[in-house]
Amino acid sequence: MLQGFFQIVLFMVILVAIAPLFGRYMAIVFLGQKTWLDPVITPIERLILNGSGVLSAKSMTGRQYIQAVLISNLMMMVFVLAIFLLQNRLPLNPTELNAPSWDLALHTVISFTTNTDQQHYSGETTYSYFSQMGGLGFLMFTSAATGIAVAIAFIRGLTGKPLGNFYTDLIVSITRILLPISIVGAIALLIAGVPETLAGPAQITTLEGANQTIALGPVAHFEIIKQLGENGGGFFGINSAHPFENPNNFTNLLETIIMLVIPAGLIITYGILADNPKQGWLIFWMVFILYAILIFITAWGEFQGNPLVNNILGESQPNLEGKEVRFGPALTALWAVSTTGTMCGAVNGMHDSLMPTGGFATLSNLFLQIIWGGQGTGTAYLFVFLILTIFLTGLMVGRTPEFLGRKIEKREIVLASIILLVHPIAILIPAAIALAFPETLSGISNPGFHGISQVVYEYASAAANNGSGFEGLLDNTLWWNLSASFSLLAGRYIPIMALIFLADSVARKQPVPETTGTLRTDTPLFTTVTAGAIVILGALTFLPVLALGPVAEAFNLIPTL
Amino acid sequence: MRDFVISLRSIIILWIVTVVIYPVLILAIGQVGFSDQANGSLITNNEGKVVGSAIIGQTFTSEQYFWSRPSSVSYSEGSDASPTGISGASNLAPDNPELLSRIETEAQRLDNEGVKPIADLLYASGSGLDPHISPAAARVQIERIANRRQISPSEIEQLVQQYTEGRFLGIFGEPGVNVLRLNLALDNIS
Fold first, then answer.
1. Are A248 and B168 inside 8 Å of each other by CB?
2. Rg (chain B; Cα; Å)
3. Rounded to an integer, what is the distance from CA B152 to the centroid of its chain?
4. How far, in Å, are A184, A241, A286, A339, A486 from residue A365 at the CA level?
5. What are the two backbone dihedrals, phi and then psi, of residue A402, each rounded to the nearest 5 degrees?
6. d(Cα A73, Cα A487) in Å, to the nearest integer?
7. Per UniProt, which keywords does this protein have (chain B) (predicted)?
8. Of B16, B17, B8, B14, which Cα lies nearest the Cα of A72?
């Protein structure tokens, strides 16, 4: 157990060393400064910008920006939906898969366009190589880039600058951040054992004479953008637990780090773009502490093991159900908290079989949405929480709330509240409906309190645009595909619209000079108050569900006293 | 309207970049430079016949082999797995009676075979394809295999050590014994 915690601590040291480098690099990219990659990237990028007709594009207003996000995303959905529904007539389909049902295809398209990658299917048995590469792999780049673009527009607005052009930022995010890192990362994964082939599954006779079918595919290039873009949709059904997606502890380390660097680094980027790096660092450490606490809780629970099973064994052994030997309890716990915190949603062990402490931590991540948070949006939400805290503390001490030198007024608070409120609405209402019809709708596969968690988790994962699941849930049904699609869309586009309107409205305000009377937000005290506000707001909204789910389940597991 | 045109143009160009150029580049590097890994790390026996993948587990039930972990998808073997291949976990919650009865039965079976139940031999893996068992789970099986194959336990012990994949950099992850490669090595000495 000690060695396990040592691995976790060392990992966190690596994260703290690497994330700021990414953060500074992203700041350089969006400030338009020179980098050493320019000689290679600039010509290619000009070609793409020119081909898209946005080479000398003007900055957009809030309304134009939102329109661009919605129209481009809608067109991507239609385009990829067509690929799915025609996959039996398209090439690269070695196992001759039929087109998926319309509701599954619709759910998959919405799920991947919203950077969620919730999967109600298994990759190897449902989508052809063409659908995976040409549909899902494409959306993995564009959905991640959409999140980054929105986040950058948001911070530009908050600091009084023009929002920028959506298409330019979308393309630049891909050419300068996502694609270069993916190329290097994919080659590293490939060398470490992740396959990359267009050949169909291998048919093999095992040592004991059984017929084994080994699914293959173009995995390496898909895997890296899955992690880097916080996408999380596995090439294979079982995601990064599959030895072909994550064969050893080098790949596991790489995949864990790479899913954290953009959301963690973006906080530092925000500090730099807001011309207040200290503010960025304070928020970084606040999130880091919450993250560390949740990892500790999860890992501790897994190391204690399942008391009911320990009874049978006659000794205490870690819970290994749904875990791979090579990762063990420590790295599975680390991954589970990282993937739900960052809204990646990939898994290297099954969350459904985690101990209740793990269920509590992963659900809390989905509810709070800011323990690093989604690609771009997570950092934006953190700043929304800062704005709300300024408003709350401003009320307490009787000062006009100001943030980054601009007044926070009614319109901003209304928009911030919308962002905060959409989340519980998109989770709790559909969950209540599903739970009201346990036989026909819910699809619960585990009895008792855990079943409630399964349903709530699925909607929380959809609304938070995470994509992981308590995968025992029987979710490939018309009800689940459509109701989860509602949570996916509401959890993605309503907050994005609110963020852009908020940034637009702040950008139009006159700057207020800072005086001795200004409430400073870049102090440890204010950061602590912000952490308190986040936890209290989250707890007020979701504690009842947590009590009915993982907390009750934990009590249920205590052996009869 | 302008947005539709720009969206369409950027989708086409970004699609070519991320779906054609990027994967083809990685495919070429894989197939030319690292064809073993790129094609699934398949391994062959002494006769040169492919018997599996070095990083995908298999079912072993025979007395003369080391046994793998329980799998919810039978290691993608049999007619259910054909033609696509499958992966999967039990997804049973810790308090699910099904999990407990499955583990109880398996512990009883191992006990009857004279194998001490070790956690990873009872708990089903995440992928259903886990190629490893823990060194402890290998150790408790040595005696059975030594008796069956009439080789000295110390020789098997040596093989187990040889096929134990350690932690990355000695730090990250848990050591695991590659069951297929170990069993293949056993076949090759006797």
1. yes
2. 22
3. 27
4. 30, 21, 14, 9, 21
5. -135, 145
6. 16
7. ATP-binding, Cell membrane, Ion transport, Membrane, Nucleotide-binding, Potassium, Potassium transport, Transmembrane, Transmembrane helix, Transport
8. B8
Q: Which chain A residues are closer than 8 Å to B62 by Cβ?
A: 208
Which residue among B49, B81, B88 sits closest to A213, beta carbon to beta carbon?
Answer: B81
pLDDT at site A517: 78
Q: How far apart are the CA of B33 and the nearest CA of chain A, in angstroms? A: 9
The one-character DSSP state at A101 is P
Q: Please list, in sequence order, all residues whose beta carbon lies within 8 angstroms of the beta carbon of residue A350, skipping any fewer than 6 positions away.
A: A241, A321, A322, A323, A471, B89, B90, B91, B126
Chain B positions in Cβ-Cβ contact with residue A472 (cut-off 8 Å): 90-93
- Tally: H helices and E strands in chain A: 21, 4
- The strand pairing partners of A343, in sequence order, are none
Tell me which residue in B5, B14, B76 faces A212 most closely, judged by beta carbons: B76
For residues A303 and A318, is the Cβ–Cβ distance under 8 A?
Answer: yes
| pLDDT for A159 beyond 60 | yes
| Model confidence band, residue B190 (pLDDT cutoffs 50, 70, 90) | low
Q: Is B74 left (phi over 0), alpha (psi -120 to 50) or beta?
A: left
DSSP A430-446: HHHHHHHSIIIII---S
Q: Under a CB-based contact definition with an 8 Å cutoff, are residues A214 and A202 in contact? A: yes
Measured between beta carbons, which residues in chain B are less than 8 angstroms from residue A52?
6, 9-10, 13
Which one of B58, B61, B132 has the shortest CB-CB distance to A212?
B58
pLDDT tens, A360-379?
999 999 999 999 999 999 99
Chain A and chain B share a number of CB contacts under 8 A equal to 378
Half-sphere exposure of residue A530, counting CA atoms within 13 Å on the CB side?
A: 26
Q: Do the Cβ atoms of B92 and A76 come within 8 Å?
A: no
In one-letter notation, the amino acid at residue A333 is A
- Around Cβ A385, how many Cβ atoms within 10 Å? 23
- Helix orientation angle between B153-162 and B179-189, rounded to the nearest 10 degrees: 140
Q: Report which of A171, A173, A166, A286 is spatially closest to residue A228, judged by C-alpha positions.
A: A173
pLDDT tens by residue, A238-253:
999 999 999 999 999 9
CB contact under 8 A, A238 and B128: yes
Contact yes or no for A309 and B34 at CB 8 A:
no
- The Cα–Cα gap between A87 and A125 comes to 13
In three state form, how does the secondary structure of A314-330 look?
CCCCCCCCCCCCCCHHH
Q: What are phi and psi of A180, to 5 degrees?
A: -60, -45
Q: What is the pLDDT of residues A191-229, one digit of tens each?
A: 999 999 999 999 999 999 999 999 999 999 999 999 999
CB contact under 8 A, A197 and B30: yes
pLDDT at B1 over 80: no
The Cα B91–Cα A479 span in angstroms is 21
Do A327 and B173 count as a contact with CB atoms less than 8 A apart?
yes
Q: How confident is the model at residue B118 (pLDDT cuts 50, 70, 90)?
A: very high
Sign of the torsion formed by the C-alpha atoms of A361, A367, A368 and A369:
positive
Q: What is the ipTM of this complex?
A: 0.96
Interval A64-95: pLDDT, tens: 999 999 999 999 999 999 999 999 999 999 99
Split at pLDDT 50, 70, 90, the class of A395 is confident
Using the beta-carbon criterion (under 8 Å), do B3 and A67 form an inter-chain contact? yes
Residue A185 neighbours by CB under 8 Å, 6+ apart: A224, A227, A228, A254, A258
